[in-house]
Structure formats: structure tokens, C-alpha cells
Amino acid sequence: MLTSLYVEGNSWFHRLPVRAKLIALLLLSLLLFATQSLYLLAPAFLLCGWLYFSLGLTIRQALARIGFVFFTILVLAVVNLFLLPLPEVAALVLRLMALVFFAAAVTATTTISAFMDEITILLKPLERMGLLNAADVSLALGLVLRFVPDIFARYEAIREAHRARGLPIRPLTIIGPLIILTLKDADTIAAAIDARGFRRQ
Amino acid sequence: MNTRDLVLIALFAAIVVVLGLIPPITLGFIPVPITAQSMGAMLAGCIIGAKRGALAFLLFVLLVAIGLPVLSGGRGGLAVLAGPSGGFILGWAVAAYVTGIIAERFIHEGQSESRQFGGFFLASVAGGIVVLYGIGVPWLSAVTGTPLLAAATGSLTFIPGDFLKAAIATLAARAVYAGYPLLPARA
């Protein structure tokens, strides 16, 4: 149900370590926001676009992933045309699209486990300060992935129950029972986690 | 934080993911489709409280960032966070926190039903609309260069739908509070 946005492949960008890609994304966003020059932004846009489309996604898949974001950018660009001079609007659009291309490329070439390893390292300082437990974050993430299909099945069951009784299907009448039924499991799951000693405390 | 809080946070994040899988419903009189997911911050604050609600949304943002298509319409990944509406997604955690603070303060057992409805509605509007737009709109304006006033005026289109969502969240939160109260529990 929740298939990752990672794309199998072995391009040079796939082989780059996650940390390098995330730092590059951060630097790129700082650099792109620092400049207004179309001579810098247009090549950046083309380069990031080329990078994203060279990762092994079909054009259609590639566009499906970022289409919604591009749509928003274009709508705002149309509004901007009435308020700002043309070169400025062009700069804004190119900058934002370059950034979105690059961010989508990072997402497409990094596995969830690679991200998680990196996040665990990033959380280390917080752990040392006693603010949180990095293992808890991984556990919570695992729990979400484990329970989404179950909760969706529960949603389907509530919907079927509505149908069987001839009731209209409305968010209001579904969300309440869905939340109560789901959160009622919390005690059982918590007891199971503690019984297995997953969290040593 | 005990294990039960951790599980509640994870389960609520999972509920928000499922709300994104529910097909959106278009109402006749408002042009904006109602996706159940954008009520998530209001529901999280009203149902599991400020701290757990905010953490549930931080976990959700983490899911988005590591490339899971958990946003409604199967969106996800760093591209969405880098785009114009990234502020709204990051703002959900703060929105859930503020909603939770207000709900925890105003809702008690033994109040009349109408006061509880009022409290949940106030919390949902303050957190899920005022705070969320307070973060999302300036962010959008900064990222896209659209002047703040124009961005704010454009966002007004979504406000009626958001009030409707606050109303639905209020009814759902009160139903959960009556059936399985979690709000006053420590965390």
C-alpha cells in the first residue's frame, strides 16, 4: 500500500551517500535563493531537470510525482505576472522548479533505510541531551508502516457497514468510529511492546 | 514518555495517512473538495492533546521527507516540502500543538455538551486555521515571491472549506471524547 518513492537504479546519483545529497540540497537552496540572475538560474533549472529525468523514471512517472507541485508553482506564477516584472517571475519559477527537481531526485535515489540511518545520526545530539530516544523514532515509524493497511481495512469495513444499512457515506460518520476503534488498540500494542522488552527503560 | 504515548502517536500518524487515502468529497455549495487529511491537525490536537498531537505530525512529516507517498493524492518526498506549500505541511505540527493546548485548557469532564462543542470548535479554528495559515501563507509568499497580501487574499478561497472542516473535526472530536477520552491523560 505504501510503496516508497525510491526508484531502483545504479546511476552515480544513486551511489552518492545520503548525507552528501542532503547537504547538496541544502546548499543548492541557499545558493538559488541568493541569486536573481537568469544566467545562473536557467542553467541550474536545466541541470536539475536533466538530473531528475536521467534517473530511470519514465517521463510519465516522473511528471506524476511532481505534477501537483508544478501546477501550484505555475498558478502562483500567473498571479505574479500581474504583480511583478516578467524577469523576476521567470527567476522565481526557474529557481523553485530547479529545487523541486533536485529534491525529487534525492527522494527517488535514496532508500527509506538509508534515510533512517541518516536520521538516527542526526538525532544523536538530541538523544545525548535526553530529549528523545532515537530508537523510539524508528519504532514509531515502523508502527505507522505496520498499521496503515490495518487501519485502511478498518475504514473499508466501516464503509461496508454503512452501505449494508443504506446510510450515506460521509466523513463525519466514518472518522469518529475509525479513530475510536484504532486508538483503542493502543493499550494492547503498548503492552505487547513492553512484554517483549523492545524499549529498555 | 511511556510506551502507550508512543503507540498513540504512531497510530494517529497512521490514521492521518489513511485519511489521505479516502477519496475526496466535493460538496455542492463549495468548490473546494474536502480531503479528510487536512482535518488531521485539528483532530490530532483535539483528540490526543498538544504534545502527542504535535509529535504525531512530526512523525508524519518525517514519513513525507523520507519518500513515502503519504499525502493525499499519493504525494510525498522532499519535492513537496521544497515546493510552495511546504510551509503548510510543516505548519501542521504547530497547528496540532496549538489546537491541543486550547482543547486541553477548555474541555473538561462534566461540562455541558454545547460548551465542549464550543471548546473543540475554538481550538480547531485557532490551531487549524489561524496558526496554520499564519505559517503557511508567509512561507508561500517568501518562497514564490508572491506579495504577502496577494497570497493571503488568494488563501481566503479555502477558508469556508476550512470552517466546514473545523465543524466536522469538532463533531468527530466530541464523539471520540464521549466514547474514548484521551485528551486529559498526561503526556
TrEMBL record, chain A:
InterPro entries: ABC/ECF_trnsptr_transmembrane. Keywords: Membrane, Transmembrane, Transmembrane helix. It is found in: Membrane. Coiled coil: none annotated. It is a multi-pass membrane protein. It comes from Sinorhizobium mexicanum. This is Energy-coupling factor transporter transmembrane protein EcfT. It comes from the Bacteria. Belongs to the CbiQ family. The keyword Transmembrane helix applies. GO terms for cellular component: plasma membrane.
UniProtKB/TrEMBL annotation, chain B:
It holds the Pfam family BioY. InterPro entries: BioY. It is found in: Cell membrane. Its main location: membrane. One of its GO terms (cellular component) is plasma membrane. Belongs to the BioY family. This is Biotin transporter.
